[in-house]
Amino acid sequence: MKKKIVLGALLIAMAGVFGGCGKAESETAAKSAEEVSGTEAVNESEAKDIETQAKESGEAEAVSQAAVDEVITVSVGTMGTYSPFSYVDENDYLTGYDIEVLRKVEEVDPSLHFEFTTGPWESLFVGLDSDKFQMLANQISGTDERRQKYYLTENPYHTAVNQLIVKKGRTDINGFEDLVGKKIGLTVGDAHNIEAEKWNEENGNSLTLVYYEEDITTLLQEIVNGKIDATLNDPAVAISKAEIQGLDVEPVGERLSETPVYFIFKQDELGKTLQEKIDTALGQLIESGELSKFSTEWFGADYTPQGK
């Protein structure tokens, strides 16, 4: 009887042990299943994040590529021999005020890229008409004839000025009345002559006008050498030429005339697009004061229309 009791107790104890092991294994299996399920959820979330990031990255690349694809390459006609507005420097680099203003426009509107082609003045409008160029940048004024045939920017980017130029340090000349009995040198056929010729005609031809076949460089040399007392020209051009030759001259008196200059385009769909885009950029440069600052840095004076 005693053996049966002991055997029964032993069987009960073993059942408890095996039952406990089964429960532990069941709990462990359940816990493992939960961990696996949680890992799968994390992996699924990470996969979605990766997919989203890839999609966003792809969209960003697509936008970036679209922006590149939308860049307009513009062929610009310019002389390249008209210092200080368009010329090739000692490093064989095309520069000049007109050129650098367009490079500033590029900074404002990256959808524009300008490529410059140089040629003589008489070839510029021919090139524009034949689609060799899409625009011109060469100190071009807005005559009625040009406005009828071409698009011009609404915003002028520079003012061409006509002013008396004398030897640096002279204080006795500030206007035409101070030149009575003195000599004014002029280049034959130059548009800068008009003010002097008109004043002379209205005042009894009291000025001595001396005409030269040579350009402004020769006239500046004649001024420094004392052969003439003054000439008429754009001070920006005169000072640039004088610096190259090492001549000490300066503008004096009031500006005798002011002529706004513009970028010019063919009258077609592309021309209109370029006109509007460049006008918008110029407007920002003008409003911010950047264009006036740049003009002063380039010429020593503000020759924008806002600098009058």
TrEMBL record:
SMART domains: PBPb
Assigned keywords, A-Z: Signal
Database matches in Pfam families: SBP_bac_3
InterPro entries: Solute-binding_3/MltF_N (IPR001638)
Boundaries of every Solute-binding protein family 3/N-terminal domain copy: 73-302
Ranges where the record places region Disordered: 28-48
Signal sequence annotation: 1-19
Name by which UniProt lists this protein: L-cystine transport system substrate-binding protein
Organism of derivation: Kineothrix alysoides
